[in-house]
Design goal:
Blueprint lengths: L1 H19 L6 H8 L3 H5 L5 H19 L13 H17 L1 H13 L4 H28 L8 H21 L4 H19 L6
Length: 200
């Protein structure tokens, strides 16, 4: 029961923080949204900062378990088409999972206020994707699927445009379908450019 209450508090905090930011959300609003009193929240969390830090911990674990990370890599694709399929599966998750979308919005808002949010934004919007795809591309080179190149630079070139298009989905959700199509077109252009064909 206590865990359920704690999870409800974190879920509501994520929703409010992603809409109003940390400073724009107070405990009174959080308790009102939950239909609770302040004392009930303080049984689970010492203060708003404790809710914030626990929420970030939960969302890091949630994202890593479902998307992957440099520490939890997806398997290296067995084919060039497998890279496209893996990419689109990850894109579908990150664009449509409500918790991940709210977390991305929260980090976008809070990256200029909170050092931890800043570091997580840099990791999830840039360096983490590069670091995750670097060993994937190195593995694909070892399998003879991609031409030999600097895998880190290739990973950066691959993930930066995809990340930009995912942010477009957040800003203008009505363009999500178009952005996802662009990502698939880009992924296929990438394998056409860097992939090893049967004739080679």
């Amino acid at each position: 029961m206590a865990k359920d209450t704690k999870d409800r508090i974190l879920a509501t905090a994520l929703e409010l923080f992603s809409q109003n930011g940390y400073a724009g959300t107070n405990i009174r609003e959080l308790t009102a949204s939950l239909g609770m009193v302040k004392s009930s929240i303080y049984k689970h969390f010492e203060n708003k900062e404790a809710i914030w830090n626990t929420l970030l911990d939960h969302m890091i674990a949630y994202y890593n378990a479902r998307f992957g990370s440099p520490e939890q890599l997806p398997p290296v694709p067995e084919s060039l088409e497998g890279l496209v399929e893996m990419t689109m599966r990850l894109v579908d998750f990150t664009v449509h999972d409500e918790k991940v979308v709210m977390t991305r919005k929260l980090l976008t808002i809070e990256q200029f206020r909170d050092d931890r949010a800043r570091d997580l934004a840099t990791k999830h919007f840039l360096t983490g994707l590069r670091d995750m795809f670097t060993p994937i591309f190195a593995g694909m080179m070892d399998k003879g699927l991609l031409h030999r190149d600097d895998p880190a630079m290739l990973a950066f070139a691959y993930t930066a445009p995809i990340s930009a298009l995912i942010h477009l989905c957040d800003r203008e959700p009505e363009k999500a379908g178009e952005a996802i199509t662009q990502i698939e077109t880009f992924s296929r252009h990438f394998i056409k450019t860097y992939g090893v064909t049967e004739d080679e």
